[in-house]
């Protein structure tokens, strides 16, 4: 992982992205709807850069701290969706990304450079296809689909637990494919939602962080499951 997203490259990218976000997404101290998709993309890149930088430089032994970190993530997530102050929301966004990066670090250490490269290639292809599908067939992505997808991921999680407890992970790979399919649908749905949000965007209430955080979770979960298929 270190050879692909090096600490040095990310140390340059993160300040540049922060500066680009400030000059593009803010006007007179408030977030602006101007250049909506550019700003959304910058925030998404910033989220991913922070995530991978955390995994490259932070080395915390979570033994004995797992519950504390988990509670911290849940608390930060709740506050993130409740607060309206844009600067506090940005701080909570950074805390959430860093915490998720710390938790994910041990998972990525199990894979070699080639596995990660292969998973990245597949991720990029899936993202392109999903975005094109969302742009081409937006009428198919109705609000009720989100509810269906949430239920589908909960059922899949339950099946994973059953597979782990009673079948010694016999169906793990099949369930991983199912998760990839579900989150592909989430990416399409959230892409359509961003398009709709951009049309009714109001300066000072842009929804950048909420929309970006949803997509960030989609992308990272998708990537982790593509890596599982490389095992």
Structure explained in plain terms:
By secondary structure, the protein is mainly α. The protein has one domain (7-228). The protein is built from eight helices and two strands, in the order αββααααααα. Strands 1-2 form a two-stranded antiparallel sheet. A hairpin with a 2-residue loop joins strand 1 and strand 2. Helix 2 crosses helix 4. The protein is globular.
Brief characterization of the structure:
It contains 8 helices and 2 strands. The chain is mostly helical and 231 residues long.
Q: In percent, how much strand structure appears in the residues?
A: under 5%
Q: Radius of gyration from the CA trace?
A: 18 Å
Number of strands: 2
Shape: globular
User: Can you summarize the main beta sheet?
Assistant: 2 strands, antiparallel
Tally the structural domains.
1
- In whole angstroms, the N-to-C terminal distance is 16 Å
Set out the fold topology.
Layout: H1 7-25, E1 26-27, E2 30-31, H2 36-57, H3 66-82, H4 86-108, H5 113-136, H6 144-166, H7 172-199, H8 208-228
Antiparallel strand pairs: 1-2
What key phrases describe this protein's structure?
231 residues, two-stranded antiparallel sheet, mainly alpha
């Amino acid at each position: 992982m270190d050879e692909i997203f090096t600490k040095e490259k990310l140390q340059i990218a993160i300040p540049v992205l922060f500066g680009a976000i400030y000059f593009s997404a803010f006007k007179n101290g408030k977030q602006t709807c101007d250049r909506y998709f550019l700003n959304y993309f910058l925030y998404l890149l910033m989220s991913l850069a922070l995530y991978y930088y955390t995994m490259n430089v932070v080395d915390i032994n979570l033994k004995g701290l797992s519950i504390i970190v988990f509670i911290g993530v849940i608390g930060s997530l709740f506050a993130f969706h409740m607060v309206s102050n844009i600067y506090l929301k940005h701080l909570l966004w950074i805390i959430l990304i860093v915490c998720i990066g710390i938790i994910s670090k041990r998972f990525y250490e199990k894979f070699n450079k080639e596995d990660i490269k292969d998973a990245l290639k597949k991720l990029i292809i899936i993202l392109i296809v999903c975005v094109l599908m969302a742009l081409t067939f937006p009428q198919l992505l109705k609000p009720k689909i989100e509810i269906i997808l949430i239920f589908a991921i909960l059922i899949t999680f339950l099946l994973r637990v059953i597979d782990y407890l009673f079948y010694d992970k016999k169906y793990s790979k099949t369930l991983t494919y199912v998760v990839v399919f579900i989150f592909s649908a989430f990416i399409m749905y959230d892409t359509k939602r961003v398009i709709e949000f951009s049309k009714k965007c109001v300066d000072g209430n842009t929804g950048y962080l909420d929309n970006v955080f949803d997509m960030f979770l989609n992308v990272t979960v998708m990537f982790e499951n593509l890596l599982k298929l490389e095992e």
